[in-house]
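During the reporting period the student researcher (J.K.) took over the structure-prediction task from the postdoctoral fellow and processed the backlog of single-chain submissions. One of the processed entries is reproduced below for the supervisory committee.
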Amino acid sequence: MINSLHPALVGFADIRPLAIDDWEQYRLEGEQFLNLAEGAFLNKKKAFTTEILYNLIAMAIEKLVMGALMEIGRLPYNHTMHDLVVALVEWLPEKIRGLEESVRVLDSYQEICDPYICTIKVPTAMEIENMLALARTLEQRLLSASA
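J.K. obtained the following structure tokens:
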């Protein structure tokens, strides 16, 4: 009988995540999407419908969250707003605290995963204004994900 006095060589607690390449690019693109959406909204650019603004804001949030998660070496399971919130709650809970439901609600504007059963809700100007404020709040919290 062999007596094993040695613990496992590597356990899950021993794995130290490293930043994922290009996380800065994701953050930059998120800021660019958000700046574009905000500028178009504030300047009442007619080409930017509320549907387009919603998509720009959603892309901004996705890129900002991905940049923050990549900076700490983590990734979400998927890219819906629900999945991004789950990842933030798990890895950066202080950054999302109190914003979870507001971010999740963004998924309800476009449910397009099933090509046979799509639901698109056109947001109002007031909803876009609230989305922009939410995105800016999240952006500020995520600026230093590792801090």
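The committee noted the following: Helices lie at 23-42, 50-71, 81-91, 93-96, 100-105, 125-142.
J.K. will present the remaining backlog at the next meeting.
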